[in-house]
Amino acid sequence: MSLEFLAKIDVLYQHFQAHxxxxxxxxxxxxxxxxxxxxxxxxxxxxxxxxxxxxxGTSTGYSTLWLAHAAESTSxxxxxxxxDAERSELAHQNAVDFSLDRFVEFLVSDAQDYLRQTTEKxxxxxxxxxxxxxxxxxxxxxxxxxxxxxLLVVDNVVSHESEVNDxxxxxxxxxxxxxxxxxxxxxxxxxxxx
Length: 194
Hints:
Layout: H1 3-21, H2 35-48, E1 52-56, H3 62-74, E2 77-82, H4 85-97, E3 104-108, H5 111-117, E4 124-127, H6 134-137, H7 141-144, E5 151-155, H8 161-172, E6 177-182, E7 188-193
Parallel strand pairs: 1-2, 1-4, 2-3, 4-5
Antiparallel strand pairs: 5-7, 6-7
Helix pairs in contact: 2-3
């Protein structure tokens, strides 16, 4: 990872944090992934040599930049979903500013609609969206996650455990999958086929 990328993305993260501190309403905040979690995602993609990446919940693109930085080294293509058009546009502009936009397809879409319709298979999926929809998403995620080597990563499973507990149990109860929780950042839930 270049020092230039790390310095530039740190400045952007501090800007996003300052924005979030100015708002008490949860939906007005950007709620970006923590830097240590984002850095781990970057390493996982490089290790896995991911080629097709799906991000559910773009927000302003902080995590997208980390995914795209890894995608640059693995020649991957990212599809990122955000329901808020303004945030998606801001994320796209951030990717342009980092010269990483060529690796990312920005879609303004309801995630459930996309998941229901897509026929693509992804070897890496990041789920970091509205947590009350996760159980509904699970109806589709197993079909689009590659069975051989595919990895689903879900953020905020320690910090918002009560909100994702039903989802965690739903996934854990499926004997086709192996799971673990990493206490990094807000907590990452890793899911892969057995």
